[in-house]
Design the sequence.
């Protein structure tokens, strides 16, 4: 019999010896047999396999290449097959969208035996979530039911974008732990619309109870894989949203134009009428065309009426672009820019208005007279409605969280975008002097069209809107053109231009991760020197 093994039962039917039995592999998988052959107890590994190995259930082949970082049981000679304890756990939902977005959420008690993978087996397809790529959350309800003495993130959720249509149905889902213990459950996969699933996942990202500081937790939860999957999924939805826009123009024939004002609307239709009424009183208002692109399809009928009324009332050229879905700030502005009829793009938030009567005309005069380096990418001073300074350019700071348990690295560092002079008096000379700055806000961004196209516009990888303006400015800086902060002055009713929902907070968390992935290392090196709020980019504006 085998060293420490068991005799085959009398009359036991054994599997035939594989015709391509690999002696070297069998000995590698069974080192006790290798020793026995070396000591002369068996003439070969094959002899051992024929007499004992088959009965013991020993592996004769490496199972599809030895998996990394996992123990594979090749045999249990000399002992009963004692399976590891089945863990406690549950699946809350498995949801699948029409374009292949797959979301799973549940919990498993892996406080002592860590989760290794979540495996799904469905008729026609299967996949596995690696535990390292799952977001882990606290589940106080399950912790209480289990009577856990120490808090532990037993909750999990994961997301994958397959990029193809998968059929829903009954699913055999296996929660597999490091020891090999597993909990198998049968669940029904719930079919979802793409947009609805994105909203659910982003809401979970924003509202999940993650261990650690709230500012860092969501980024740490998605940095191992979910972030990239969400960006790919959202990018597909963005392309679909802008593929077939409805465009209606209200123009005066033969008008010579010098600039194109681009405004992205979301959630609140009132700003089209209000902004048109205030801009029409500006000197030089007729030198612009006004392109309104709407990310809220439910506002379409109202905006068509308002655009027609505004054009008849004020006589300004208006182009209305209506999208069937929310494409986000970046894609909507890129689409509007492609329909502009001038070489100067002025991107405004819907809640941005001139602070003085001549600002719109002064903007065009500045573009025509100042050196190109100062006008290629141009910002303005923005004010709160109480007159306090809100924005005079942007800079970056770094927040560090050493030893954050949920991070995939020892120290998690996140860039933070800050405004120069936020809350300062309205006439702060040092902050209002024209100068180069690291970045300007997309709430007021004047840019030469050819430069905008050279930079490929805003990156559409950012979900909904957040950080894409800073990203554009850093790409411009990397290409040799820093943003220039002018002394143009506008009001910005910050946060009042559209209703912000929890899924937008989730999108902002994805964008924070993406922005730091792209620019964190570069900006962190720059931040090792003097603070940018003091010396950097504050020199001679020429």
Sequence:
């Amino acid at each position: 019999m085998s060293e420490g093994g068991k005799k085959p039962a009398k009359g036991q039917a054994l599997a035939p010896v594989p015709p391509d039995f690999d002696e070297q592999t069998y000995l590698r998988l069974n080192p006790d047999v290798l020793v026995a052959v070396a000591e002369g107890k068996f003439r070969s590994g094959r002899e051992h396999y024929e007499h004992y190995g088959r009965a013991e259930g020993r592996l004769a082949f490496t199972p599809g290449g030895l998996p990394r970082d996992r123990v594979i049981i090749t045999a249990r000679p000399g002992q009963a097959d004692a399976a590891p304890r089945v863990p406690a756990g549950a699946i809350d939902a498995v949801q699948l969208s029409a374009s292949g977005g797959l979301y799973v959420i549940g919990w498993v008690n892996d406080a002592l035996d860590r989760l290794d993978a979540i495996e799904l087996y469905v008729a026609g397809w299967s996949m596995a979530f690696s535990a390292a790529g799952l977001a882990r959350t606290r589940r106080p309800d399950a912790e209480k039911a289990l009577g856990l003495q120490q808090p532990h993130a037993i909750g999990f959720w994961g997301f994958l974008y397959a990029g193809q249509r998968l059929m829903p149905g009954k699913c055999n889902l296996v929660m597999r732990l490091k020891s090999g213990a597993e909990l198998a459950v049968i669940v029904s996969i719930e079919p979802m619309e793409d947009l609805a699933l994105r909203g659910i996942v982003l809401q979970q990202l924003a509202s999940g109870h993650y261990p650690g500081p709230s500012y860092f937790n969501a980024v740490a939860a998605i940095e191992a894989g979910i972030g990239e999957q969400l960006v790919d999924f959202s990018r597909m939805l963005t392309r679909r949203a802008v593929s077939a826009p409805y465009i209606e123009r209200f123009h005066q024939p033969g008008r010579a134009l010098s600039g194109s004002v681009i405004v992205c609307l979301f959630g609140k239709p009132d700003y089209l009428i209000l902004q048109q009424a205030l801009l029409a009183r500006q000197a030089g208002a007729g030198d612009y065309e006004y392109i309104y692109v709407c990310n809220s399809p439910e506002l379409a009928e109202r905006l068509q009426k308002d655009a027609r009324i505004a054009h008849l009332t004020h006589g300004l050229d208006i182009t209305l672009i209506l999208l069937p879905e929310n494409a986000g700030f970046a894609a909507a502005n890129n689409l509007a820019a492609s329909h502009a009829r001038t070489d100067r793009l002025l991107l405004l938030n819907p809640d941005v208005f001139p602070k003085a009567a001549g600002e719109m005309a002064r903007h065009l005069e500045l573009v025509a007279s100042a050196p190109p380096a100062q006008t290629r990418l141009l910002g303005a001073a923005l004010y709160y409605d109480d007159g306090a300074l809100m924005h005079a350019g942007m800079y970056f700071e770094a927040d560090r969280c050493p030893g954050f348990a949920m991070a995939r690295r020892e120290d998690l560092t996140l860039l933070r975008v800050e405004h120069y002079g936020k809350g300062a008096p309205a006439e702060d000379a040092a902050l209002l002097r024209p100068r180069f700055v690291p970045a300007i806000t997309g709430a007021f961004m004047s840019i030469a069209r050819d430069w905008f196209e050279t930079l490929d516009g805003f990156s559409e990888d950012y979900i909904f809107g957040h950080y894409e303006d800073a990203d554009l400015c850093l790409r411009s800086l990397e290409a040799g053109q820093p943003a220039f902060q002018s002394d143009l002055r506008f009001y910005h009713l910050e946060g009042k231009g559209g209703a912000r929902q929890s899924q937008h907070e989730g999108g902002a968390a994805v964008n924070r991760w993406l922005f730091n992935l792209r620019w964190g290392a570069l900006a962190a090196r720059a931040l090792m020197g003097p603070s940018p709020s003091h010396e950097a980019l504050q020199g001679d504006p020429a």
About this structure: The CA atoms of residues 344 and 453 lie 12 Å apart. Residues 89-238 form a domain with the Immunoglobulin-like fold (CATH 2.60.40). The chain has three domains: 1-82, 89-238, 246-527. The radius of gyration is 31 Å.
